[in-house]
Design a protein that fits this description.
It is a single chain. This protein has 551 residues and is α+β, with helices and mostly antiparallel strands. It is built from 16 helices and 21 strands. The protein has a six-stranded antiparallel sheet, with helices on both faces. Helix 10 (323-343) packs antiparallel against helix 11 (348-355), helix 13 packs across helix 15 (498-512) and helix 14 packs across helix 15 (498-512). It starts with 7 loop residues before the first helix and ends with a helix.
């Protein structure tokens, strides 16, 4: 009775207006709207004011608002609920009244989330995921903001609060003051993070300084660590002790009230399915996201490889897309990229190319995107499987490049990071991008690429150390012996330009300090080869297996 069934490709990411939602879903939509408005009043988040008591400047600065109704689905594609959300028109706020720190809110990075999940699997930790309802409403506003409510919602509010009816303007709108943070306001995310962070610190948690959305606490009673990865109001919490988890969930409920908790071995979290049912490993897939995407775009064919010809070739005579098609192309490229960045790294080289031309896309680019979608359709069930071996932790970064492969003769670089000595066991971070500068040789191209991706490997190593794991060793895999010799020598080439020399000396300095170990790997064996070249046949299959750890 909650919602009339709709085809997944129509509804999974559909935002509806209030009028459209009421027309299509009637009572179910009305219940969601009323629930959201009731939450606004109970907090209280909004409070009506007499517009005649406001100055002309205050009336002019009033920001708009809008209610969105969304049909929410779990990552496996199952319907979850209808959700209504009142959103402020933060685009109308005066940004000169805020510092950058007041409007910038952190979220957990995908690599650190994957590490938290992988370590939970390795150590046999219990995993719980939860989200806090109306999270922003738990934070108090600091700067005074007035907001307009549209006539439909104002009428509903006046039924709940009859005393507000006298303050309706001649268009049937209420003017309210925001007492608590509201979605859409430019400062709300940071206010919520500060509120949550203060609570966690007050009960003994400490933020990982490499990712301040990962918190840890050592429980003295059970002698175990509890870890939380935070993405706004969605948490992944891991601990070997159910007692410690239960205690923390009780504290969370007592502080923030409305909370949805999920237990078990399989979790829907941030559009991904984390499956811990096999001991020692976690499988990460996005079935609901992929199914919805392919059905929405009408993809029925399948392809064996992500590309249909030379990876970086471009036909300069290909006609440009019409503006409507170009916008659709732009949207589709980034929809695919969101998924590929997490579970299908082999798609990143062509996506890097397509992302670079979203404003000047041609018919050729559209065909390349169609081919890529057909490849995803052919391997939609393949995800990312992470298995972190027991014992000492290693950060293995496989780094590779192709020299002068783009039409402007710039190279292409890629990096893959796994938490294992040999690089097997799945990928927790991957990148594949065109270099930002031209280089004069293959060795220079490899040097620039290594300096770019070594930073991420060292960051991951630091994150693991902050998590409490001793003697974390970083390994950089490289297939170019000239580049390895150059970094180890201790002196630069006489003709090296300044930007190349800076990268060289930085790498050499970190190597001498023992921050990482350089390891030569044959070009046919290096995992990142798939992210810089257009491989085919067994070379493609073997490389994908090494990267995804998915047979």
């Amino acid at each position: 009775d909650m919602v009339a069934p709709l085809p997944p490709h129509v509804s999974k990411s559909l935002n509806l207006s209030v009028k459209a939602a009421l027309a299509e879903h009637e009572d179910a939509a009305l219940d969601a709207i009323v629930k959201e408005l009731r939450a606004m009043l109970d907090a209280p988040t909004i409070e009506a004011v007499d517009p005649e008591t406001l100055s002309w400047e205050q009336l002019k600065k009033r920001i708009p608002s809008k209610m969105f109704i969304k049909l929410k689905y779990l990552a496996n594609g199952d319907f979850d609920k209808i959700k209504a959300r009142l959103v402020a028109g933060g685009h109308r706020q005066d940004r000169t009244s805020y510092t950058e720190e007041q409007t910038s809110s952190p979220t957990a990075a995908s690599p650190t989330l994957f590490i938290v999940a992988g370590l939970a699997a390795r150590e046999g930790r219990k995993v719980r995921c939860c989200d806090i309802g109306t999270a922003y409403l738990k934070a108090m506003m600091i700067i005074l903001i007035h907001m307009l409510i549209d006539p439909t919602l104002s009428a509903l509010l006046c039924i709940m609060k009859p005393e507000w009816e006298k303050w309706l303007d001649d268009k049937g709108r209420l003017t309210v003051v925001l007492r608590r943070a509201l979605y859409g306001c430019i400062e709300s995310g940071k206010l919520w993070y500060d509120t949550l962070s203060a609570f966690l610190v007050s009960i003994g948690f400490i933020a990982n300084q490499r990712d301040i959305c990962t918190y840890n606490k050592w429980d003295d009673e059970e002698d175990v660590q509890i870890t939380i990865s935070i993405f706004v109001d969605d948490f992944m919490i891991t601990c070997v002790s159910d007692t410690v988890l239960d205690r923390f969930m009780s504290q969370l409920r007592e502080k923030f009230g409305d909370l949805t908790e999920r237990t078990g071995d399989i979790h829907s979290h941030l559009g991904m399915v984390f499956d811990f049912s096999v001991a020692g490993e976690v499988s990460i897939t996005m079935p609901g996201y992929i199914d919805s995407m392919l059905e929405k775009y009408g993809v029925t064919k399948v392809q064996k490889y992500p590309t249909n010809n030379d990876l970086f070739a471009r036909d300069e005579n290909s006609p440009p897309l019409a503006e409507a098609e170009r916008k659709e192309f732009h949207s589709r490229v980034y929809t695919v990229a969101y998924m590929a960045q997490r579970i299908k790294p082999e798609c990143l080289p062509i996506l890097s190319e397509l992302c670079s031309c979203v404003r000047t896309a041609t018919t050729e680019d559209w065909y390349k995107l169609e081919h890529l979608l057909q490849y995803v359709n052919g391997c939609r069930d393949i995800g990312m499987r992470i298995r972190i071996p027991k014992g000492q932790l290693f950060v293995n970064a496989s780094i590779d490049s192709s020299h002068g492969c783009h039409p402007n003769m710039r190279g292409h670089g890629a990096g893959l990071i796994s938490i294992s000595k040999d690089g097997h066991g799945g990928t927790i971070h991957c990148e594949s991008t065109k270099l930002s500068l031209n280089t004069k040789s293959t060795a220079e191209t490899e040097l620039v690429t290594m300096s770019d991706y070594a930073s991420q490997a060292l960051y991951i190593g630091g994150f693991l150390t902050e998590q409490g794991y001793p003697n974390v060793q970083v390994i950089l895999e490289q297939d170019n012996e000239s580049t390895i010799a150059l970094v180890r020598k201790g002196r630069s080439t006489a003709k090296a330009t300044r930007h190349i020399a800076i990268r060289y000396f930085w790498l050499h300095d970190r190597l001498v300090r023992g921050d990482f170990e350089l390891l030569h790997v044959a070009g046919t064996e290096i995992r990142a080869d798939l992210l810089t070249k257009d491989l085919r046949g067994a070379a493609f299959s073997n490389c994908r297996l090494k990267i995804n750890n998915w047979e």
